Amino acid sequence: MMAVIKRCQTDESTSVNGDLFQESNGPTDGYAAIAQVDIQRQEPESLRKWREEQRSRLEALDSASKAAEEEWREKAKKELEDWHVHQSEQMEKNKANNRSSEEAFLAESDGPGAEWERVARLCDFNPKTSKQAKDVSRMRSILISLKQTPLIR
Fold first, then answer.
1. What segments bear the compositional bias annotation Basic and acidic residues (predicted)?
2. How far is 32 from 24, CA to CA, in rounded Å?
């Protein structure tokens, strides 16, 4: 019995998990055998032509979509830069306008304690002309009382 096993080991044999298997001439993998049959079987000329045409169409579509995407990216980048420029210009205008308004407001200063007088000039205290939906009567009364008797510091 030992002689038989030794003879098998000297022949072209393979050991898998301790079991001895004889090598074969064909592929041992079942999928490889199927793939080999597929290679041997030639596809019709019309199918081969269609595959090549389809591949070329898909490549053309891919290149066109990549070009369009690149164009959109460039356009979006330009629009974003334009928006940032416009936004910074608008902010500079607002800053300048706010500074000039603040300077004019401070130039009107009548001295200390006249702040509420200036606030009263900016507010509309007539309840009948106010077209606001919210009730601002309490705020109006507070501003009027502060105008009449300013806070002492």
1. 82-95
2. 14
